[in-house]
Amino acid sequence: MSETYPSALLEKAVSEFSKLPGIGRKSALRLVLNMLRRDVSDVDEFCNSIMTLKHEVKYCKVCHNISDTDVCPICSDRRRDASTICVVENIQDVMAVEKTQQFNGLYHVLGGIISPMDGIGPGDIEVDSLVDRISTGDVREVILALSSTMEGDTTNFYISRKLMQYDVKLSVIARGISVGDELEYTDEVTLGRSILNRTPFKQ
Amino acid sequence: MSETYPSALLEKAVSEFSKLPGIGRKSALRLVLNMLRRDVSDVDEFCNSIMTLKHEVKYCKVCHNISDTDVCPICSDRRRDASTICVVENIQDVMAVEKTQQFNGLYHVLGGIISPMDGIGPGDIEVDSLVDRISTGDVREVILALSSTMEGDTTNFYISRKLMQYDVKLSVIARGISVGDELEYTDEVTLGRSILNRTPFKQ
After folding, report:
1. Residue B193: what pLDDT?
2. What pLDDT was estimated at residue B203?
3. Is B91 touching A (CB cutoff 8 A)?
4. What residue stretches are annotated with the Toprim domain (chains A, B) (predicted)?
């Protein structure tokens, strides 16, 4: 059922907000009315932050992560191990891995995964530039850290074929039961894999 | 645990988005990255719609609803019954009542309800202008359509005292079980009220 907005300006703003992912028209209206209640300077700052980001955003020339500089802080950090590259789908995944504090190498952000259903082919993601990085011979290990989905598996397979000719170790992040998971509630595929890929018990 | 954003511009935009009600930092990041993926013209339009609304928004001089004109379309509609005023808390409530297509009178938007806990007193809501509208003598009925909460009840009581001296009928929207509700899941206060306020059965 269509809503009747008391103002065309309001309706326009609501329809712009509702283009955002996961924001319906009802939430959009709530957000817009919140904006209306705030100071003009606040709203200015909100809009400026988006426009500035949009116009001045850079992507690291090496790993394609978002960066304020041509080469991102991670890629230019000499203390990090440049011989190990962790391949991830997107920027959020870099942040997720960084948060674990378990990885000290560099990243490679694909900017998507191969998904024919969504019209994303191998040419749409940053695989060629990954191959370029490997072809220098300085990289010893590539860790594939993609989602454990059909698309992730397809992309892993595609990358592995592309890197076959190089002398580089390929690994995939472990799949198994989550820490804290109860066995009886774990799905059988995950449980099956976690048995196949069992690791030596450490005391 | 604090996140490390790869870019200060990104962090600024995320922190602006997460000021919106109901948007956490994780959702904010998702929204900002969505913005980044869109065309510059799209992002321009998004920002323009908010800024235009913020700078050009008007409130109806009569009912205080948002309006593109000095007097809103509802207040200036001669076909509507100007002798009945429905008092609501906010703009969303006008839209909600309009959607029912059961009301053909005018509105009065209070812009809030009395809530001492939130520091909102009688002086912060549009009661005086309601009294002005009633004092002309043209209004026969005021329908109080506020939320069925302590704050709504307090506001209803305050308005009723303010209007006591005028010859105007005061009514409150019915409270009872929702259409479609099952009796056994209705809370006892609502069910109790719906029995006290029972209406003649119509076939």
Report:
1. 81
2. 66
3. yes
4. 83-178
